[in-house]
Amino acid sequence: MSDDRTTGDGLLDGVRESDLPQWATDLGLIAGIVLATYVGFAVLGLLTGVSVNAIAGFLQTVTFYAAVYALVALALNLHWGYTGLFNIGVAGFMAVGVYTMAILTAAPDGSPAGLGLPIPIGVVGGMIAAALVGFVAALPALRVRADYFAIVTLGLSEIIRLSLLSGALRSFEIGGTEYGTGGGSGIRYTPVDSVIPWLLERPVFGFVGDQLFALGTILGIQPSVIQGALYTGVLIVFVVAFYLLLTRITYSPFGRLLKAIREDELAARSLGKNTDRTKIIVFMVGCGLMGLAGILWQGSRSLVSPDSFMPIVTFYIFVALIVGGEGSNTGSVIGGFAFAAFLWEGPRFIRTIVRTHADVRAPPTIYDAFVALGGGDPLALVGYMIGTLDEIRFILVGVVLILLMIWRPDGLLGHRKEIAAATDLSRRPTATDGGQTGEEAATTGGETDE
Amino acid sequence: MSTGSGQGRFSNVTAQDVVGGLLLLGIAVLILDLIRLVVTGGLPLGRLWAYVWNGIVDSLYIGLAAIGLSMTYSILRFANFSHGDLVTTGAFSGWTAAYLVGGLGVAELSSRLLLRADGGAQPGSVGMDVLSAPLAIVVGLIVAAIITIGVALAIDRLVYKRLRDAGGIPLLIASVGVALALRYLIAFFYTTETRGVVASAPQPEAPGFLPMETINLHEATLVISALTLILGIHLLLQYTKLGKSMRAMSDNKDLALITGIPTERVIFATWVIGSGLAGVAGYLIVLDRGQITINLGWFLLLLIFAAVILGGIGSIYGALAGSLVIGLTINLSLVWIPADMNEIAAFTLMILVLIFKPDGLFGGVETA
Fold this sequence. Notes:
The structure holds two protein chains of two kinds.
Chain A lengths: L10 H37 L4 H31 L7 H16 L13 H23 L4 H20 L6 E3 L2 E3 L7 E2 L6 H6 L2 H17 L3 H29 L1 H11 L1 H6 L4 H24 L4 E2 L6 H14 L4 H16 L1 H12 L8 H9 L4 H9 L1 H19 L30 H12 L1
Antiparallel strand pairs in A: 1-2, 3-4
Helix pairs in contact in A: 1-2, 1-13, 2-8, 2-11, 2-12, 2-13, 3-4, 3-5, 3-11, 4-11, 8-9, 9-11, 12-13, 12-17, 15-16
Chain B lengths: L1 H39 L4 H31 L7 H20 L6 H5 L9 H4 L7 H25 L9 H23 L4 E2 L20 H23 L1 H11 L1 H6 L4 H27 L1 E2 L3 H16 L4 H17 L9 H15 L12
Antiparallel strand pairs in B: 1-2
Keywords (chain A): Cell membrane, Membrane, Transmembrane, Transmembrane helix
Organism (chain A): Salinadaptatus halalkaliphilus
Subcellular location (chain A): Cell membrane
């Protein structure tokens, strides 16, 4: 189809036909999955008598987590999906971003004190700091194999977390003011979602916001849910920006080099490409984006502590990426959404439904639950399972990861081949057309395609 | 471009040596400083001995777990992130057995079966120490090994066997999934509460020839059991046909296949030995620390990896030596840095070794 470009009058049509469908189908796919999920949860909720406010709140939370997981998964996709750098220290890079932002923006009279700079400076500073730590981590990437690199990055993320946690960096005095990481109790700062009240005071946003709040009152949705939804909207803008940026990177010559490194680094190197420099650059870019994603995620709480960056967080993001399929930006977004909706928040929705219907009180241990079951009361076991839903959720995440590795290692969308060349070589007319001149060949090619 | 490659060659040749030299220099400086501290009295000899002893104890249970991790790494060719949770499995299953036996007639079945998930059956009242309930402790030790082996074999059959030829990274990811599922399956039954399950250790006075005043009998149990098992592994690897095939497999899998070594049987033996030792390690850690938690093995995993890497992946003696280095590092580093940073020292050491000496501290001896 791309051959249509050569026919002069159909140039625009050609572009639309050859380029639009790819991202349009992707957009349609994402929108379809999101809408179907929303409708599914809403109908399920309404049928089982969950209040509109609870459903709206739930969908808001799902969208929030979907957006943040999509953000980090997109950044990770740049590392692993496109370049083949198996980075399992994501939590550490996020921690660097968030802590830098927190120290830069926290109030100068707080404890521990910050520098009191405006939030945008903090956000940019956090990204730069994460990218710089990424630079330090990328140096070993040049010499160790994939599984060693995994352990190096995991070790680094634990070093970062333990340093933030340690008493030695908890507070130190510079010029009579106590700065520091606050150790286990963390740092307080102005959250980045304070952008919403600020936006609501601007003319256009304020008007739209008022309408939304009015609509919420009619439907019985709390203003706090709408406030959250507005911040989630900001996150979605960032997801789109990440998506465009990464698609731009990965379809550029630089992106082709990344894929070449992933497939065969030696071959890329022997073609005269400086793979070392490329790997460092791409690692720094990805880490900067992880820092930003961390700021948008954790930075929307007003307190950050090292507990938010346990190694397990990295693996959630991996699950999101693997569900979608590594090496596909659309897959990363869908994976983030699927993880948030079905694995992360879905079980909680079931808990809400069960709790609105039955007065299930969790027995203290599973032994009591089985005793009650033996006495003819199955509700106790249900109650116990509802009470331990967080544990069950982790089991589910683990099982999904295993099943994906066994049956679908490429994820939902990972099997797609992304064309590296500027024109789609696989669709070229075959050698049988060899005798024809360019234009004729192109027309024939276009016709056979349609 | 030419300057880039020139720099690359420059760093290739010297960085390794420079960092290796710096590491040695650093260690030498630290040893000199240690001597200075002891001579000037800044560090009482008793405290130094306590650090060294704790380092040896830590290195023994890390070593038990590291043997298994090193074996799976070299024979199955992947970094098994679920190994830490096999340690946890051993701890929970072993202590449940110990409570079932030791608390018979003393505490309620529900408290014993779920290891005090309901807060009943105080370890002191049940008499959970080696002198009051030696039988229960030994039964627990054996059950810990058996159940962990069973769990590991089941996981291998269900998960890893289907991925034999999948390559290192898919197996690594699957093992993360296994780790999560296994740990929270345990949490589902036993709850996520951290709780004490062992009574305080009996501490009789030590005989005169030992450099300490009292002997912590639980620590002594750990040391003796671990050393016995390590000796057993050594004999097994060196003097049995199975040991020889395992060494052959970890050395060169393809060559081993051609010579007719039954791969699946060796893999079976790897899981049996590796997970059995991991389970025992978990059980003994709880005996020493007194507390049990579902994150026991997961938090230990990176230290175990550090030990395996330091010793050179695939080498069991290397793993033991690496464990000794890690155990001494996390304890002796307390002389200079605060206690909440000692793991940072261990992980930094691990990263430096991975980057600059990926064959391990003791050269690339791959065989056993």
